[in-house]
Amino acid sequence: MDYKPNYPIYLQVADFICERLLKDEWRNGDKLPALKDLAVTTSVNPNTVIKAIGFLVDNNILSTQRGVGYFLTDNARTTTLDLKRRQFIQEVLPEVFASMHLLGLGPDDLTRIYKERHAAPSAPAGSNGNEPG
């Protein structure tokens, strides 16, 4: 993992876990890998993984089964989306809006740029979609 400066590592590990869930690599109810395996995967101390897991337990994304391990809750995906959206609105957007103001960009510019970047791939030149394959 490439860690960001000025952002606690345990939260970045929590983000790693949430990202796996949001990308459907892990699903509600799935058992997490062992703490040691997560520590190796994320290249952090196991204590940092434990702190990240505690954060996710506190936010009802993970639950623990004593002696068995940690599991994504039955509503982990919805809870994660709510948490990540709140974080985005409170932490990321204020900086984006400040930059937009300084650069003279407005909501219409942002909408246009978003649409350009997320446009469906165009059909090959000369193809109208009705020709036999």
Describe the structure.
The chain has a domain at 9-76: Winged helix-like DNA-binding domain superfamily/Winged helix DNA-binding domain (Arc Repressor Mutant, subunit A, Orthogonal Bundle). The chain has 133 residues and is mainly alpha-helical. It is built from 5 helices and 2 strands, in the order αααββαα. Helices cover 56% and strands 6% of the residues. Residues 125-133 have low confidence and may be disordered. Helix 1 crosses helix 3 and helix 2 crosses helix 3. The chain has a two-stranded antiparallel sheet with strand order 1-2. The chain is elongated and about 55 Å long.
Give descriptors for this structure.
single chain; 133 residues; mainly alpha; Arc Repressor Mutant, subunit A; two-stranded antiparallel ribbon; elongated; disordered C terminus
